[in-house]
Structure formats: C-alpha cells, structure tokens
Predict the 3D structure of the following.
Amino acid sequence: QLSSDPINDVEKEVKEWAREKKIEIDELKRQEKFRRDFLSNISHEFKTPLFAIQGYIEALQDDEFEDKQLARDFLAKAAKNVDRLSYLIKDLDEISKLESGEIPINLTRFKINDLIKEVFESMEIKAKQHNIKLIFKQKYDEPILVNADREKIRQVLVNLIDNSFKYGNEEGNTSVSLFELHDQVLVEVTDNGIGIEEKYLPRLFERFFRTDSSRSRQIGGSGLGLAIVKHIIEAHEQTINVRSTEGLGSTFGFTLQKSKQSLPFPNIPVLKT
Ligand code: ADP
C-alpha cells in the first residue's frame, strides 16, 4: 500500500530502529556495569581476609615474636580468615552454577514438614552453641506435600536458619511456621534477633550486600547466602520476601507449590509444567 508521505514513513522507521538499538545498547551497558561491579565486589571481599592472613603471618615470622599465647591467638584469627575465604569460594561457585543453569531444578513431591524436622536435627548442635531455641510451629494435623527440589529447599532453610543464628539474640529463638494458601504453602523463618533497618530491606537479596551492623559485629559471611536463596526460590517460580523491625527481629517467608495429590511413595519425580 502506497503511503501519501513516503519520506515521513522512512523517517519514522529510522527513528523506531534507532530507539530499538538504544534499548539494546543500554541493556549491554547495564550488563557490562553489572560484570564490573561484580568483579570489584569479589576482589574486595577476597582482599580483606587475605590481608588479615598476610598480617598475622608477617607478625609471626618476626624473630622478636616470643609471646606464645599471642601467637596462638594470631593463628586462630588467621584460621578464621581462611574459613571466610573458603566459604566465599564455595558460595561463589554455588551461585555461578545456579545462574548458568548448570544445576537444574529437580522437582519431586515430598512432605515439607519432614524436611523442616530434618534440617532442625542437622542444626541442633549449632543452635545450642548460639543458645538459640529452634521451634517448629505446626498448625496443621496433616503434613503438607509440596512439589519442589528437596535438596535446594533444604539449602534455603539452612541458609535462613543459619542467618537467624548469626544475627539472632543470645538466648533467642528461631521459629519455622507453615501456612497453607490456595495452591501454595508459605514457609516463614522468624527470629527475634537484631533485625534490619528498613532502608536496607530492598537490597538484602543482592549479591554481596551486607548491612552495616553485620559488618561492625564482625560476623563471618560472604553476603551471598540470601542471593543464593532468592535464586533458588525464583527458579521454582515462587516468591520470597522479608519483613523486619530493627532491634526486634526478622521474618523471611517463601512460597512453594503445594502438591494436590496424595502421596503413594515419597520422592516421586514430578514433571515441571
Ligand atoms: P551473609 O550472612 O553472608 O552476610 P546473606 O546474603 O545471608 O549474607 O545476608 C545478607 C545480609 O543481610 C547480612 O549480612 C545481614 O546484614 C542481613 N541479614 C540476613 N539475615 C538476617 C537476619 N535474620 N537478621 C538480621 N539481618 C540479617
């Protein structure tokens, strides 16, 4: 069909093409910035423990160094920084594998109640060390069946409960509650720990993000735990959120897809629809 104004048409097409190209270029620039920030974050996170280790080794190498007690103290601190480096590497490896899709989501049908009990058992000693009581608030008589990747959801629970120890109160408690929604179940992990300032909440699930208070309290961590958790939940096409009051505590809640059918055998693979 012939247009009454061909020059105007060509001009419109060129403008549209330029607009699309600009969107593509902006996206590439955003990705490039993201990569740059990511690398600079990684090197920063590695530098701190490495410099600390280097410092302790140099002090111990000094011929004048004679204080045995101080030497033991320095070695313990160096070892703590080695630990920090090793879980940084472990978490980085994990997140890069998750993001590249190298570890696919393997859905099975299982009882979420059983998984929570298992996780509690595996974390019992650590809870005792932190003087924290683990409470499973079971409101329903029947266990709830979900379709999810059991191992990955275990990791989500471990990360959230572990955080509740790290940022919890001595003599505090951590509870896990289940809420049945229409075709989902909501799992909530609640602590009565230090809580999180409201301004930090939107950034909490970003890689390497740590609030000032966790830094100042010298709590070990890579700042990747919640990024991993969010990735796992989103790979399940589910949601995770947090609510918190500074000084009172935090609740992290995530949803899972409920399995409608009754359970003939545990862990039957379910096809993702
Ligand atoms: P890490 O614990 O290794 O620093 P995470 O990604 O697990 O990394 O958590 C990011 C930050 O979110 C923590 O550094 C801490 O500041 C804050 N945070 C996480 N969980 C809690 C919690 N239960 N209570 C208070 N702050 C928390």
Observations:
- The chain has a mean pLDDT of 89.
